[in-house]
Amino acid sequence: MTVSELQLQPLTQAQLEAVVELDRVCLGGLWTLEGYQRELESPNSELLVLSVPSAAANEAGSSQKGQSPPLLGLGCFWAIVEEAHITLLAIHPDYHRQGLGQFLLLALLEKAVQRGLERATLEVRVSNEAAIALYQKLGFRIAGRRKGYYQKTQEDALILWLGGLQDPKFLQNLKIWQQKGRDRLPWKLPENPQNSPLSP
Ligand SMILES: CC(C)(COP(=O)(O)OP(=O)(O)OC[C@H]1O[C@@H](n2cnc3c(N)ncnc32)[C@H](O)[C@@H]1OP(=O)(O)O)[C@@H](O)C(=O)NCCC(=O)NCCS
């Protein structure tokens, strides 16, 4: 494998159809193509996607050999005043539990730090144990609950917050988590930060 097989980059126009398909598979069709188009055009939106060449994706464990998806994950936040409102975080079901969700969330938080934001927040279903465990692992705290927040199911949402994004200690921890995360991933990333799509 080459060092750049796992790619993390801002969503591009050419990936619009692929991201809608990933959204359908992971989130049951939350946003439309027009919705993603608006994200591309919004200066307040940060939308990152993970992709790998098909062969590498299959090596890393797709259950459908030869049919790996063009995108493996997506994550998005809206910068609102001093806050990063995380609106999406999803990994293709064939690639769960490989560290990709954590990797993507850390990348979003790094982007939030680079934008000078102070806090991150999101809503999550009370039954979504995987996501809650992931957010709590990275320091998010439960700050409240919205009753019947999800219209279709009437399920409650937990409101999670993570403060201190501009605290130098947080940046230090972010770098440590990122390094550990990179070591764990079944793919490699470019080592030179100058070449990283996440460089400011
Ligand atoms: C939540 C989600 C993004 C996690 O992605 P993932 O790539 O499988 O997660 P990772 O492998 O990076 O796991 C990182 C940590 O999250 C937690 N975690 C992830 N999946 C978990 C599960 N099924 N059960 C318990 N903890 C879990 C663990 O703390 C894990 O750390 P560990 O591997 O050291 O135990 C993924 O399950 C997903 O896409 N779910 C559907 C969409 C969704 O619910 N998004 C969140 C909306 S707020």
Task: Provide structural commentary.
The chain has 200 residues and is α+β, with helices and mostly antiparallel strands. It has a single domain (7-118, 164-195), classed as 3-Layer(aba) Sandwich (Aminopeptidase). Helix content is 34%, strand content 24%. It is built from six helices and seven strands, in the order E-H-H-E-H-E-E-H-E-H-E-E-H. It has helices at residues 16-27, 33-41, 54-59, 100-114, 129-137, 168-184; strands at 7-10, 45-51, 73-80, 83-91, 119-125, 141-146, 157-162. The chain has a seven-stranded mixed beta sheet with strand order 1-2-3-4-5-7-6, with helices on both faces. Helix 4 (100-114) packs antiparallel against helix 6 (168-184). The chain is globular. The model has no long low-confidence stretch (mean pLDDT 89). The structure holds coenzyme A. Coenzyme A binds at residues 26-27, 89-91, 96-102, 122, 124, 128-131, 133-134, 137. Coenzyme A (COA) is lined by residues 26-27, 89-91, 96-102, 122, 124, 128-131, 133-134, 137.
Summarize the structure.
The protein is of the alpha+beta class. It is 34% helix and 24% strand.
Distance from N terminus to C terminus (CA atoms, Å) equals 27 Å
User: How does the overall form come out from the CA principal axes?
Assistant: globular
**Computed Rg:** 16 Å
The number of helical segments is 6
Bound molecules: coenzyme A
| CATH homologous superfamily identity | Gcn5-related N-acetyltransferase (GNAT)
Report on the biggest sheet.
Answer: 7 strands, mixed
- Helical residues, percent: 25-40%
> How many domain regions?
1
Weakly predicted, low-confidence segments: none
* Overall residue-averaged pLDDT value: 89
Please state the structural category. Answer: alpha+beta
CATH architecture: 3-Layer(aba) Sandwich
The SSE string, one letter per element, is: EHHEHEEHEHEEH
According to CATH, the fold-level topology is Aminopeptidase
Number of strands: 7
Strand ordering within the main sheet = 1-2-3-4-5-7-6
Give the CATH level 1 class. Answer: Alpha Beta
Strand content: 15-25%
